[in-house]
Amino acid sequence: MCRSKSFYDCHISPRLVHAGCSVEEFSAMRQRIVPRARGIVVEVGFGSGLNLPYYDPRHVDLLIGIEPDAAMIALAQEALDKSAFPAELRQGIGEKLQLRDAMADTVVVTYAFCTIPEPARALDEIRRVLKPGGRLLFCEHARAGGWRGSLQRGLNGAWSGLFGGCNLTRDPVSAIEAAGFTTADVVVERFSLPRVMLGMHYSGEAQVRRENADGLVSAKREEEGAG
Fold first, then answer.
1. How far apart are the first and last CA of the chain?
2. What element of type H or E holds 212?
3. Residues 6 or more apart whose Cβ sits within 8 Å of residue 79
4. With b meaning 16 or more CB within 10 Å and e meaning fewer, what string describes 102-112?
5. Do the beta carbons of residue 202 and residue 174 sit within 8 Å?
6. For 20-46, how does the pLDDT look when each residue is reduced to its tens digit (9 = 90+)?
7. What is the Cα–Cα distance from 161 to 179, expressed in whole angstroms?
8. Are 129 and 42 in contact (CB under 8 A)?
9. Distance between CA 144 and CA 225 in Å, rounded?
10. Engineered SS bond to 206: which of 47, 77, 136, 141, CB 3.0-4.6 Å?
């Protein structure tokens, strides 16, 4: 139930976000990235389920969607019920995934790093739940330079309030790399004029760098030994 938020946040903002994220520019990036998901898939920031049509049911064994917002979960449920492959939706946050270590073959994040309050913590959790050799697939909008960047900085406060906490000034690819991932096959585009405030448009994939994966295993063993 959406009881602790305003009427706008419960009933209007989720539908605005759903409509905005349904436009062709977003759909084209989803089409490029989401079909690459394989095996056990965790989607962080499931939203209203807009990625569901792009998963390849031949290659997805199980999809676990993580979404904090009850209103978005309600919007997603109908699409989830019609899924052509096993899928479930859990209410939760990216910064604290209630999932065991090294359980996911693929983690998918599309247009969610802009709203996650602590993206660095969420990326630590993504790194934890990925199997060795697993992949993070992402599509995100990001800050731009020049006059576009100035426009984003000027609009960011009001924009965030209107559109579910969306932040216009983040650099998701740099955040992914800073969290110990190596990115690959990254495509960078500019949004068209009607959506110029969204800045740059990124999609790609990432894997945990070997030294970071080894460190995570060592830390886990130390924790188990201490216990």
1. 38
2. helix 210-226
3. 48, 49, 52
4. ebbbbbbbbbb
5. no
6. 888 999 999 999 999 999 999 999 999
7. 27
8. yes
9. 46
10. 136
pLDDT digits (tens, 9 = 90+) for 103-131: 999 999 999 999 999 999 999 999 999 99
Local confidence band at 9 (pLDDT 50, 70, 90 cut-offs): confident
User: Which residues, including other chains, have CB under 8 Å from residue 55's CB and lie 6 or more apart?
Assistant: 34, 35, 37, 41, 63, 85
User: What is the Cα–Cα distance from 25 to 42, expressed in whole angstroms?
Assistant: 23
CA 15/CA 8 separation, integer angstroms: 10
Q: At residue 73, what is the residue type? A: I
Q: Using pLDDT thresholds of 50, 70 and 90, give the confidence band for residue 138.
A: very high
Residue pLDDT, tens place only, 163-186: 989 999 999 999 999 999 999 999
Q: Compute the distance between CA of residue 59 and CA of residue 50 in angstroms, rounded to an integer.
A: 18
Q: Residue 49: what residue type? A: G
- With a cut of 50, say whether residue 70 has pLDDT above it: yes
The pTM (predicted TM-score) of the whole model is 0.89
DSSP string, 7-47: HIIIIIHHHHHHHHTTSHHHHHHHHHHGGG--EEEEEES-T
